[in-house]
Amino acid sequence: MATFNVEDPYHTEQPALSTYASDALRNNSSGDDPDKEALERFKVREICEGWGSYRDAAEWQNYSSMFFDDAYIATSWKQGSLPEFIAASKAGFAKGSRFMYILHRIIGSAVETNRALTRAVCKQKITITCRFTFPDPKGELVEMDNEADCRFFFLLEKRQGRWGVCFYTLLFDKDKFVPVNPGKAFDVPEDECRKFPSGYRYLAWAEVRNGTPPKMNLNSHGPEKNILYGKCKDWLEGKQVKPDLTGEDIPDWHP
To answer: What is the pTM of this model?
Structure first.
């Protein structure tokens, strides 16, 4: 179980220098053809921005078009293949208020590519909003919104001239609960929440209560950050990458 650093729960520092892909092309590109490179970064960004637009509206054909068939997705509440994630999302929508109503606010993106323009990493600032419905001690239903500031990481590849997402995961920076009706709040037990990673302790608590135990190594203030940045570097340098993107490789995993 994760430990909660009371003194500095949101400790933030520069990623380890060993995880920096020094040869990658970025928005201040120093490559051979800045216009062409900018166009490729735009293509990547447009694909990745489909997550919030398509998933939130249950546009599954459009959502699927973002990914290659062998893509691996790891969120806080579900990890697996693209078909497995879509099936779990459909089941969640079908449960209605018994699950959690998940929406995404896209804030901005930064894209890095290799010099051959065949691999890319898109880092995206996102706020995830999840509406939960909890019964209070009197049995009345209380709606609460969890808002989590986080960063999405998409690892993409160009195959036969087409970009597609191969891996997706995220890191959480901080989160909070907000009552939908300001005069009707649910008492969230702080001592229980502090058992979870600081970046998403309230969301993680709610997911356990909801029957979907969270992935515990998605905290931007923990060691998993450098693990993920290191795998992003490996990806841009053409190396093989395996999930878990924020932890140890899954034994015998293959696309």
So the answer is: 0.95
Residue 219: DSSP 8-state: B
Q: How high is the pLDDT of residue 3? A: 52
Residue 168 contacts residue 79 (beta carbons within 8 Å)? no
Sheet with 162-179: list strands edge to edge. Answer: 79-81, 67-74, 162-179, 141-159, 119-135, 101-113
Contact call for residues 159 and 187 (beta carbons, < 8 A): no
- C-alpha 50/C-alpha 109 separation (Å) is 12
* Token pair in block for residue 228: 């993920």
Strands 162-179 and 67-74: parallel
Q: Is the pLDDT of residue 250 over 70?
A: yes
Calculate mean pLDDT across residues 72-92. 97
pLDDT in tens, 210-229: 999 999 999 999 999 999 99
**Distance (Å, whole) CA 213 – CA 236:** 32
Residue 142's contacts (CB-CB under 8 Å, 6 or more residues apart) are: 133, 134, 135, 136, 179, 181, 184, 185, 186
The closest of 82, 165, 151 to 119, measured between CA atoms, is 165
Query: DSSP class of residue 49?
Result: T
